[in-house]
Amino acid sequence: MKKLFSLLLVFAMILSLCACGGNEKNSSNKATIFTNDNKSVQMSAEDLFEVYDSNEAKFNKLYYRAKIEFEGTIKSIEMDRSVIVESGSVMGVGADGGASKIVFEEGWCLVVDANNTEIDLADFDKGDTVKVTSGIVGAPFNTDYIKKVCDNNRVVWLVGDDVTDDFNNNAKFCDIKTTIQK
User: Fold this and answer.
1) Which of 27, 108, 109, 111 has an alpha carbon within 20 to 30 A of 140's alpha carbon?
2) Do residues 114 and 99 touch, judged by C-beta distance below 8 A?
3) Which tens digit of pLDDT belongs to each residue from 128-162?
4) For residue 4, what pLDDT band results from cuts at 50, 70 and 90?
5) How far are the Cα atoms of 95, 102, 136 from residue 120, in angstroms, in the given order?
6) In angstroms, rounded to a whole number, what is the distance separating the alpha carbons of residues 141 and 114?
7) Strand, coil or helix: what is 71?
């Protein structure tokens, strides 16, 4: 009976140790962000949601058009879809839209302009783990339309120097070069 009890205790300890390892993925979900006040910070998409929701002015001051580098797992790749490139601004609407998006399991959404000749989305698949460099533009999730564009998944929107603003003389949204590598 003592051996059975000891064996049960060992099994319970092993199970509890396995449960402790469940948070390891969360630490790898952090991206390196080079803030607009010249600091380097480690943050997850959820961290940025909290900043955006609590104080959008602070988000814009520190993170709008800030450089981000992360390793992420591709959740989906969608061609010529509606994408958000800043709060209240939507582009790529319609069948011949101007942008595509790569959604990552970690909560990032990378916008790729239709005219981008350096990133071939056909080279990537769902489940691929890739390294990305781009710029942050927003994390809105406050209207039904935005939720529809996001497929009801909250994301931090990222764009690089390939995306232009049709309403602002085709100026670049961000001066950071977008790269994505396997």
Assistant:
1) 27
2) yes
3) 999 999 999 888 887 787 777 777 788 888 877 76
4) very low
5) 19, 12, 21
6) 24
7) strand
